[in-house]
Design goal:
It is a single chain. By secondary structure, the chain is mainly α. Among the domains are: 13-129, Serine Threonine Protein Phosphatase 5, Tetratricopeptide repeat, CATH 1.25.40; 154-250, Serine Threonine Protein Phosphatase 5, Tetratricopeptide repeat; 409-514, no CATH class. The chain is built from 23 helices and no strands. The protein has helices spanning 2-33, 38-45, 56-72, 81-92, 96-112, 116-130, 136-152, 156-172, 176-192, 196-206, 215-231, 235-248, 252-265, 268-278, 284-300, 304-324, 327-426, 433-446, 448-454, 459-469, 474-480, 485-500, 506-514. Helix 15 (284-300) runs antiparallel to helix 16. The radius of gyration is 56 Å and the shape is rod-shaped. The relative contact order is 0.03.
């Protein structure tokens, strides 16, 4: 019994996991192609409309993808409950990418329900979220829809701005079909404004890409070309293009232009057939103009009964248009929304700047405090260094004065010693050891380099060098060192070679030894 229960539970878990996985696989596949193959997505998801086994995340994604595919296929859903639930889910979970798409398609649904204010606000919120997503495939559709909304109320400057953004997004994803559709929309708007040069320019932009398009996009391109040709007086060629476009995908604008050509050709019957069809146009301008032309020609042909009937229908169109005529409020609403977004952005910028200024002030205060402490430390160090400098300077002054005193004393002592040595030489007496030692000590103290130079010599040779430096004559040196003058001369010649590496006479040695400093 226990094994049976375990088996049943295992089967339930496996079935549940498999069902969940199938949902995920189906939705993931649909999401990958919803932008490019919306018709296929509608066929894929339609069987799951009443599926109650979906989890909340799957149901939210299903609602978005199904509504998105319906709208991109050119169809509309009468109720907004499905997409509204998706929007609430993505909003609750902070999924901005799916939320932006849900807001757009909720807005489209509300727009077709004549809930214009709510629709515009939803679309503008989608636009605001889209700025941070970098999703050009979504941007193309978003800007195309916003361009259409502004086109419907005659706000052509904003219309062109959105269509230009749609064109840029189409080029980012390198989609020729989307690019030609955006170029068609721009060309049509310039055609309405009567700017023929701009119409021609954007037609030329679309020409290299149109061979890869089909359906409504190709038909609209042919209609724009036909309109340009009609403005140039080439009605025959324009009629051929319009006929071709009507075979591909009949459009209200194409029918209106074709009716205009029929009128110019005198083919009233064919023109009236077009006007009959155009009275049901979703474009109020096209429908009203068609009613007027149709009524005018019915009266001309004496068909007053039908003329009266169509006059009544025209009045109903006017009455409905009057009730729905909120073009100015739509423009004001979008302008106010953009201004509010701009103000919020400016407010955030101001807050950021204020925060940056406050941070800068705090950093500046910290830097000032740090600088002051550093300056105080440097001042203290400078004062200490100045004190040390003054002390050192005082010591150096004392040392210099001491040295000067010693030099004066040495100089005096040297003079006395030299004088005693001259006196001894004059008396033909040798130098006593005390005078010889004092002479050496004082000489080496005054000229340390001399000590280094003479360090390798014996005491007699050093005495000869020192006496020579102090100007003693060779005869005096000979007497003081108990030598003969010739011996002294020989010593001097030998020392020239030994100390300076030179050859020469005794005079050369005298000059060399006296140059040692």
């Amino acid at each position: 019994m226990r094994n049976t229960v375990s088996l049943i539970l295992l089967i339930i878990i496996i079935v549940g996991c498999s069902h969940e996985q199938s949902h995920n696989e189906l939705l993931n596949q649909a999401e990958q192609i919803v932008f490019t193959q919306p018709d296929s997505v509608v066929r894929m998801l339609s069987p799951s409309w009443n599926d109650t086994t979906m989890s909340e995340p799957d149901r939210a994604l299903f609602g978005l993808l199904y509504t998105e595919a319906i709208h991109r296929s050119g169809l509309y859903i009468g109720t907004d409950s499905l997409i509204a639930a998706s929007k609430k889910y993505f909003e609750r979970h902070g999924d901005n990418e799916h939320l932006a798409r849900a807001l757009l398609h909720h807005g489209i649904t509300l727009y077709h329900q004549q809930k214009t204010r709510e629709a515009i606000l939803s679309m503008k919120k989608a636009e605001q979220l889209a700025r941070g997503l970098n999703e050009p495939a979504f941007d193309w559709y978003l800007f195309s829809v916003l361009g259409d909304v502004n086109d419907n109320v005659g706000n052509y400057n904003t219309t062109l701005r959105y269509y230009m953004q749609a064109l840029q997004a189409a080029r980012q994803v390198d989609n020729n079909q989307w690019a030609v559709q955006a170029l068609n929309n721009i060309a049509t708007t310039f055609d309405v404004l009567g700017e023929v040069d701009s119409l021609k320019y954007y037609l030329e932009q679309a020409r290299p890409l149109v061979d890869n398009t089909e359906g409504d996009v190709r038909a609209n391109y042919l209609v724009n070309n036909a309109s340009f040709l009609m403005r140039s007086g080439k009605n025959d060629e324009a009629k051929r293009l319009l006929s071709e476009s009507m075979q591909i995908s009949p459009t209200d604008r194409g029918g209106k232009l074709l009716a205009d050509i029929y009128v110019q050709e005198g083919d009233t019957a064919s023109a009236m057939l077009q006007w009959y069809r155009l009275t049901t146009s979703l474009s109020p301008d096209v429908a009203i103009q068609s009613y007027h032309l149709l009524i005018e020609h019915l009266n001309f042909w004496g068909d007053t009964r039908n003329a009266a009937e169509y006059s009544q229908r025209l009045n109903e169109v006017y009455r409905g248009l009057y009730e729905k005529n909120d073009a100015a409020s739509i423009v004001d609403l979008m302008t106010q929304f953009d201004e509010q977004v701009k103000e919020r952005r400016q407010y955030r910028t101001i807050i950021a700047l204020l925060a940056a200024i406050i941070c800068l002030m705090i950093v500046s205060a910290l830097l000032v405090g740090y600088s002051r402490r550093r300056i105080d430390r440097l001042n203290a160090r400078f004062a200490e260094s100045q004190q040390q400098y003054n002390l050192t300077r005082s010591e150096l002054t004392q040392m210099r004065q001491q040295k000067e005193r010693e030099q004066r004393e040495n100089s005096l002592q040297m003079k006395q010693t030299v004088s005693r040595l001259h006196a001894a030489a004059n008396k033909a007496k040798p130098a006593i050891d005390e005078d010889a030692n004092v002479l050496a000590q004082l000489s080496y103290a005054q000229n340390p380099r001399l000590r280094e130079l003479l360090s390798a010599l014996n005491s007699k040779e050093q005495m000869v060098c020192l006496l020579t430096i102090h100007g003693f004559q060779p005869t005096e040196i000979a007497t003081l060192t108990i030598s003969t003058p010739q011996a002294i001369t020989n010593i001097r010649v030998r020392l020239l070679k030994k100390l300076f590496g030179e050859t020469g006479g005794a005079k050369d040695f005298d000059n060399a030894i006296k140059q040692v400093k």
